[in-house]
């Protein structure tokens, strides 16, 4: 009894739909007229790049644009008049859309024996005939057993226009799979849910371009530190420019922090001019060599690498334990001569990032 009432209810709803779509009234000849039911502009393929691919999966989160719950799916299945169920319009962007379900598949789009799902754009909401509306579509079929939505989408964006107002997937799920109650798509014998996300993706307006420069006219800066034994314990070089950016070397002649009294500490710092220009999110990749050459007979150079990101939060990188003070102070080793220490940096790579708009 209640089943029968249900049926009546759906049928009147459907005849209503017929009238609002291009149907003038009841259809006398089922076979022939069912052809006329199908809108002519249907393609899931010819407006897509061939390299695009279909992605299927499961998700818990319900659809964001629209959902259709059908409590009488079998009635639709058995109806000879009904090719498709179309939702009321919903708004996304400046356009009106409808979600369309073909419970037996859209045979004009090779969807026979599959569930077909489409969205259609209301062409009266297009502002000009030549307008193209790009949209990302994700279709949903609820699976009660998994308590998740089966989803299907394409890697490429869909292009709606006056000639392509209905786009989607003719083969979302085989009917054999969908109709088998064990699979959980149809539940409580007769219920199911379909949904869609229609997302009109804006094009980015902000961007950044990261490049690394590896060739500089002068890649080295050499610092001759005279009067080494009388220096302040924390001593900065003059500011120098390499790769279009300003830098300092910083030396702690008696060691920094825990290394005080043990090691010479040596750092490469972003120069004051660079820090003035720097935005909080700026970062500069640097590959360099820090060196202390031996001024004696041997050409020995003590060298240690820098391979770091400099930023307003990390303005300097180097070594608290660049070398042992005992080696530095040993006249026989020749690192300090005539009370002069030589420190050098050789830049190998410096990045710069251009922000658009700046
Ligand atoms: C469908 O219509 C054509 C004419 O357009 C007619 O010849 C044919 O018999 C019709 N088919 C059925 C099943 O009524
Ligand atoms: C678009 O849909 C909304 C309801 O979602 C409706 O109020 C509005 O009139 C529709 N616009 C057009 C142009 O059909
Ligand atoms: C349906 O599939 C057949 C063969 O697979 C193909 O020749 C035909 O073009 C397809 N039709 C549509 C509308 O895609
Ligand atoms: C919009 O679609 C309707 C129904 O499909 C059609 O009659 C009308 O000509 C279309 N309008 C434009 C501007 O294409
Ligand atoms: C690298 O930096 C130098 C010095 O600033 C500059 O002249 C050159 O154009 C830069 N090269 C690239 C590829 O950015
Ligand atoms: C730092 O100093 C200590 C103590 O003199 C020494 O053992 C160590 O080798 C030094 N580190 C480096 C990297 O020379």
TrEMBL record:
> Which positions carry the signal peptide feature in this UniProt record?
1-24
Q: Which UniProt keywords apply?
A: Signal
Q: Where is the MATH domain?
A: 63-198, 218-347
Top-rank lineage group of the source organism: Eukaryota
**Region Disordered: what ranges?**
41-62
Q: Which residues fall in a coiled-coil region?
A: none
Gene3D superfamilies referenced in this protein's UniProt entry, alphabetically:
Apoptosis, Tumor Necrosis Factor Receptor Associated Protein 2, Chain A
Q: Specify the protein name.
A: MATH domain-containing protein
Q: Which organism is it from?
A: Eutrema salsugineum
